[in-house]
Amino acid sequence: MQPTLFLDMARSLERACFDYILLEDSSYVGESFNGSAEVYLKHGLSVPRQDPSVV
């Protein structure tokens, strides 16, 4: 929740001549275990992490 962190990171990467950075966030919730997402959500497996930089 501190945009200055990401602005500073972007400026530093630009100065270092980075062309690409991947900020990954999962948007998938599995349903393959007994046809239910309950296990995945209960234990936080393969669920969206809500990283502020992506959100």
Task: Characterise the protein shown here.
The chain has helices at 3-15, 38-43. The relative contact order is 0.19. The mean pLDDT is 75. The chain has a domain at 21-55. The chain contains two helices and no strands. It has 55 residues and is an all-alpha fold. The longest helix has 13 residues, at 3-15.
Main sheet overview: none
Structural class: mainly alpha
Helix content: 25-40%
Q: How many strand units?
A: 0
Overall shape: it is elongated
Cα-atom Rg, whole angstroms? Answer: 16 Å
Characteristic key phrases:
single chain; 55 residues; mainly alpha; 2 helices
Topology:
Blueprint: H1 3-15, H2 38-43
Offer a quick outline of the entry.
It is built from 2 helices and no strands. With 55 residues, the protein is an all-alpha fold.
